[in-house]
Amino acid sequence: MAEPGSGQKSEEEWRAILSPEQFRILRQKGTEARGTGEYNKFNGEGVYTCAGCGTPLYRSTTKFDSGCGWPAFFEGFPGAINRTPDPDGRRTEITCAACGGHLGHVFKGEGFATPTDERHCVNSVSIKFASASTQ
Ligand SMILES: [Zn+2]
Protein backbone atom coordinates (compact mmCIF):
# COMPACT_ATOMS: atom_id res chain seq x y z
CA MET A 1 0.00 0.00 0.00
CA ALA A 2 1.19 3.49 -0.82
CA GLU A 3 1.95 6.00 1.91
CA PRO A 4 -0.85 8.41 2.82
CA GLY A 5 -0.75 11.55 0.75
CA SER A 6 1.17 9.95 -2.09
CA GLY A 7 -1.31 11.72 -4.28
CA GLN A 8 -2.15 11.49 -7.93
CA LYS A 9 -1.15 8.57 -10.10
CA SER A 10 -1.68 7.84 -13.76
CA GLU A 11 -4.57 5.65 -14.85
CA GLU A 12 -2.09 2.92 -15.70
CA GLU A 13 -0.52 3.04 -12.25
CA TRP A 14 -3.93 2.80 -10.62
CA ARG A 15 -4.86 -0.16 -12.79
CA ALA A 16 -1.75 -1.98 -11.57
CA ILE A 17 -2.46 -1.26 -7.89
CA LEU A 18 -6.22 -1.69 -7.69
CA SER A 19 -8.48 -4.66 -8.29
CA PRO A 20 -10.79 -4.28 -11.32
CA GLU A 21 -13.73 -3.55 -9.01
CA GLN A 22 -11.72 -0.97 -7.01
CA PHE A 23 -10.64 0.67 -10.25
CA ARG A 24 -14.20 0.80 -11.55
CA ILE A 25 -15.46 2.51 -8.40
CA LEU A 26 -12.50 4.62 -7.20
CA ARG A 27 -11.28 5.85 -10.57
CA GLN A 28 -14.37 5.61 -12.77
CA LYS A 29 -16.92 6.68 -10.14
CA GLY A 30 -18.82 3.42 -10.19
CA THR A 31 -21.15 2.19 -7.45
CA GLU A 32 -21.21 -1.22 -5.80
CA ALA A 33 -24.54 -3.06 -5.77
CA ARG A 34 -26.80 -2.03 -2.92
CA GLY A 35 -26.56 -4.21 0.19
CA THR A 36 -23.56 -6.21 -1.06
CA GLY A 37 -20.65 -4.25 0.40
CA GLU A 38 -18.23 -5.80 2.84
CA TYR A 39 -18.79 -3.01 5.40
CA ASN A 40 -22.49 -2.40 4.91
CA LYS A 41 -23.41 -4.20 8.15
CA PHE A 42 -19.99 -4.20 9.74
CA ASN A 43 -19.41 -2.72 13.18
CA GLY A 44 -15.76 -3.21 14.09
CA GLU A 45 -13.94 -0.55 16.09
CA GLY A 46 -11.16 1.23 14.27
CA VAL A 47 -10.50 3.45 11.30
CA TYR A 48 -11.49 3.28 7.65
CA THR A 49 -8.79 4.34 5.22
CA CYS A 50 -8.87 5.06 1.50
CA ALA A 51 -8.53 1.79 -0.44
CA GLY A 52 -6.49 3.65 -3.03
CA CYS A 53 -3.87 5.51 -1.00
CA GLY A 54 -4.31 4.53 2.65
CA THR A 55 -5.28 7.96 3.98
CA PRO A 56 -7.51 7.74 7.08
CA LEU A 57 -11.04 8.87 6.13
CA TYR A 58 -13.54 7.83 8.81
CA ARG A 59 -13.57 6.62 12.40
CA SER A 60 -15.81 3.65 13.16
CA THR A 61 -17.45 5.82 15.83
CA THR A 62 -18.97 7.98 13.07
CA LYS A 63 -20.51 4.99 11.26
CA PHE A 64 -24.23 4.53 11.68
CA ASP A 65 -26.93 2.23 10.38
CA SER A 66 -28.81 4.24 7.78
CA GLY A 67 -30.49 1.25 6.19
CA CYS A 68 -29.55 2.60 2.76
CA GLY A 69 -27.57 -0.47 1.67
CA TRP A 70 -24.12 1.10 1.83
CA PRO A 71 -21.83 2.02 4.72
CA ALA A 72 -22.91 5.39 6.16
CA PHE A 73 -20.85 7.85 8.18
CA PHE A 74 -21.89 11.18 9.65
CA GLU A 75 -18.43 12.75 9.64
CA GLY A 76 -15.01 12.23 8.07
CA PHE A 77 -11.57 13.20 9.32
CA PRO A 78 -11.10 16.98 8.91
CA GLY A 79 -9.76 17.80 5.46
CA ALA A 80 -9.66 14.15 4.35
CA ILE A 81 -12.67 14.32 2.07
CA ASN A 82 -13.44 16.64 -0.84
CA ARG A 83 -16.97 17.49 -1.94
CA THR A 84 -17.97 18.22 -5.53
CA PRO A 85 -21.50 18.88 -6.78
CA ASP A 86 -22.58 16.33 -9.41
CA PRO A 87 -23.33 17.76 -12.86
CA ASP A 88 -27.03 16.98 -12.32
CA GLY A 89 -27.03 19.45 -9.43
CA ARG A 90 -28.81 17.06 -7.10
CA ARG A 91 -26.10 15.08 -5.40
CA THR A 92 -22.68 15.91 -3.96
CA GLU A 93 -19.84 13.56 -4.74
CA ILE A 94 -17.25 12.79 -2.07
CA THR A 95 -13.67 11.90 -2.95
CA CYS A 96 -10.44 11.19 -1.09
CA ALA A 97 -8.67 14.55 -0.82
CA ALA A 98 -5.27 12.89 -1.16
CA CYS A 99 -5.71 10.77 -4.30
CA GLY A 100 -9.04 11.88 -5.75
CA GLY A 101 -10.55 8.41 -5.42
CA HIS A 102 -14.35 8.29 -5.63
CA LEU A 103 -15.95 7.33 -2.31
CA GLY A 104 -19.65 7.91 -2.84
CA HIS A 105 -22.02 10.78 -2.13
CA VAL A 106 -22.94 12.93 0.87
CA PHE A 107 -26.53 13.83 1.76
CA LYS A 108 -27.62 16.42 4.29
CA GLY A 109 -30.75 17.10 6.26
CA GLU A 110 -32.34 13.67 6.04
CA GLY A 111 -33.27 13.67 9.71
CA PHE A 112 -30.96 10.96 10.98
CA ALA A 113 -30.23 11.28 14.68
CA THR A 114 -26.54 12.02 14.26
CA PRO A 115 -24.44 15.02 15.35
CA THR A 116 -24.13 16.39 11.79
CA ASP A 117 -27.33 15.22 10.08
CA GLU A 118 -25.14 14.25 7.17
CA ARG A 119 -24.92 10.84 5.55
CA HIS A 120 -21.71 9.95 3.78
CA CYS A 121 -22.88 7.08 1.59
CA VAL A 122 -19.64 5.25 0.83
CA ASN A 123 -18.81 2.22 -1.29
CA SER A 124 -17.21 -0.55 0.80
CA VAL A 125 -14.84 -1.11 -2.11
CA SER A 126 -13.49 2.45 -1.71
CA ILE A 127 -12.43 2.00 1.91
CA LYS A 128 -10.41 -0.39 4.01
CA PHE A 129 -11.01 -1.10 7.66
CA ALA A 130 -8.16 -1.21 10.17
CA SER A 131 -9.01 -2.61 13.58
CA ALA A 132 -8.26 -0.41 16.58
CA SER A 133 -6.40 -3.29 18.23
CA THR A 134 -3.86 -3.58 15.42
CA GLN A 135 -2.93 0.09 15.19
ZN1 LIG B 1 -7.07 8.14 -1.40
Automatic annotation (TrEMBL):
Q: What is its EC number?
A: 1.8.4.12
Q: Which cofactor does it need?
A: Zn(2+)
Q: How is the cofactor bound?
A: Binds 1 zinc ion per subunit.
The record's section on Gene3D superfamilies has: Peptide methionine sulfoxide reductase
Keywords tagged on the record: Metal-binding, Oxidoreductase, Redox-active center, Zinc
Q: Name one GO molecular function term.
A: metal ion binding
User: Which residue numbers delimit the MsrB domain?
Assistant: 11-132
What Pfam families does this protein's entry cite? SelR (PF01641)
UniProt key word Mitochondrion:
no
Q: Which reaction does it catalyse?
A: L-methionyl-[protein] + [thioredoxin]-disulfide + H2O = L-methionyl-(R)-S-oxide-[protein] + [thioredoxin]-dithiol
Which InterPro entries does its entry note? Answer: Met_Sox_Rdtase_MsrB (IPR028427), Met_Sox_Rdtase_MsrB_dom (IPR002579), Mss4-like_sf (IPR011057)
Report the record's Gene Ontology biological process terms.
protein repair; response to oxidative stress
- State what this protein does: Catalyzes the reduction of methionine sulfoxide (MetSO) to methionine in proteins. Plays a protective role against oxidative stress by restoring activity to proteins that have been inactivated by methionine oxidation. MSRB family specifically reduces the MetSO R-enantiomer.
NCBIfam families with a match to the protein in the record: peptide-methionine (R)-S-oxide reductase MsrB
User: Which family, according to UniProt?
Assistant: Belongs to the MsrB Met sulfoxide reductase family.
Q: What is this protein called?
A: Peptide-methionine (R)-S-oxide reductase
